[in-house]
Design goal:
Blueprint (H helix, E strand, L loop, with lengths): L2 H13 L5 E4 L5 E6 L6 E5 L2 E7 L1 E6 L2 E6 L2 E5 L3 E9 L6 E7 L2 H10 L13 E5 L2 H12 L7 H17 L4 H8 L4 H14 L7 H7 L4 H12 L3 H19 L4 H7 L5 H12 L3 H8 L9
Antiparallel strand pairs: 1-2, 2-9, 3-8, 4-7, 4-9, 5-6, 5-8, 7-10
Helix pairs in contact: 1-3, 2-4, 2-5, 3-4, 6-7, 7-8, 9-10, 9-12
Protein name: AraC family transcriptional regulator
InterPro entries: Homeodomain-like_sf (IPR009057), HTH_AraC (IPR018060), HTH_AraC-typ_CS (IPR018062), Tscrpt_reg_HTH_AraC_N (IPR009594)
Keywords: DNA-binding, Transcription, Transcription regulation
């Protein structure tokens, strides 16, 4: 990646709290991650976003799908997904540096509508892909990072930079996948709408036909497209969403295991503990105690 970008981002990290942290920036939609060592896979919810690697390398695992991406490339996530993410290349001499830029659907749609020739849409695929950033996209990232040092310029300059970045992404090799995110009648958009509905109501019992109705699909078609996009069934998705939220409650709000279980929709704390241990590899109480020193990271 560009040496100027590495230097500018390193300076910002040093001024914003140092290494080994996920930090906010003057731009609400942008987070910065710095790590001086490789990390174990960590289960979390990934919002629709562009995850750019400036230095080092990362990996994401969704069900049986594994994607590696390194400096000069980015991971695009088109729908909110529970996944394992980890840093795979980092050191004190060359720490991992990365940016997460949350997608703005309205702005992305606006840029798409201005294109003289919209990108071709291929068959349904998974909700994430890795792309090597073009020269135009890298230039946008450099100018975006420079804005961190002049917060007063963000309202004026960020909208133009992000529109340009979307242009380069939409006209790149995966433009069709991004088009699906905002195209009203696409399967991706319909499944995304059902996920938003699920996210808002995950604490109560769900039937698959209710989600299918939100997506304007038959139950069988919905199930097929949901699994294609997320690599899991709707019920598997719901279970992981509930367990990740329960983890957040125990770590950031000091909720007891029983309270966390009930708050996310479980009727049986013992069933909750079994499923939690199966997903995270240890008991809820032990896991929460280990993560509590890093609780602020779970709220970003």
């Amino acid at each position: 990646m560009d040496a100027e970008l590495v230097g500018t981002l390193s300076e910002y990290v040093a001024s914003a709290g140092g290494t080994d942290a996920l930090s906010r920036t003057p731009i609400d939609e942008v987070l910065v991650l710095c790590s001086t060592q490789a990390s174990l896979p960590f289960r979390q919810m990934y919002k629709p976003s562009l995850c750019v690697v400036v230095q080092g390398a990362k990996r994401i695992e969704v069900a049986d799908k594994v994607l590696d991406y390194a400096a000069g490339s980015a991971l695009a996530v088109s729908v909110e997904l529970p996944a394992f993410g980890c840093v795979t290349k980092a050191s004190k001499a060359e720490p991992f540096l990365g940016l997460t830029i949350e997608f703005d659907g309205d702005t992305l749609r606006g840029v798409l509508e201005k294109l003289p020739k919209p990108p071709a849409v291929g068959p349904s695929g998974s909700g994430l892909f890795v792309e090597t950033l073009s020269a135009g996209a890298r230039d946008c990232i450099i100018r975006l990072v420079r804005l961190f040092n002049t917060p007063e310029a963000v309202p004026v300059l960020y909208p133009a930079i992000i529109r340009e970045l979307y242009y380069w992404l939409l006209t790149g090799p995966n433009g069709g996948e991004l088009r699906k995110m905002v195209q009203v009648d696409s399967h991706t958009r319909r499944i995304a709408d059902s996920i938003i509905h699920l996210r808002r109501n995950f604490k109560r019992p769900f039937r698959i036909d209710e989600l299918a109705e939100v997506a304007c699909m038959s139950t069988s078609s919905f199930h097929q497209h949901f699994k294609t996009l997320t690599s899991m069934t709707p019920l598997q998705y719901l279970k992981q969403l509930r367990l990740i939220e329960a983890r957040r409650l125990m770590v950031t709000e000091a909720a007891t295991v029983t309270r966390a279980a009930l708050e996310v929709g479980y009727e049986s704390p013992s069933q909750f503990s079994r499923e939690y241990s199966r997903l995270f590899g240890c008991s809820p109480k032990r896991d929460a105690a280990a993560l509590r020193p890093y609780g602020e990271q779970l709220t970003l």
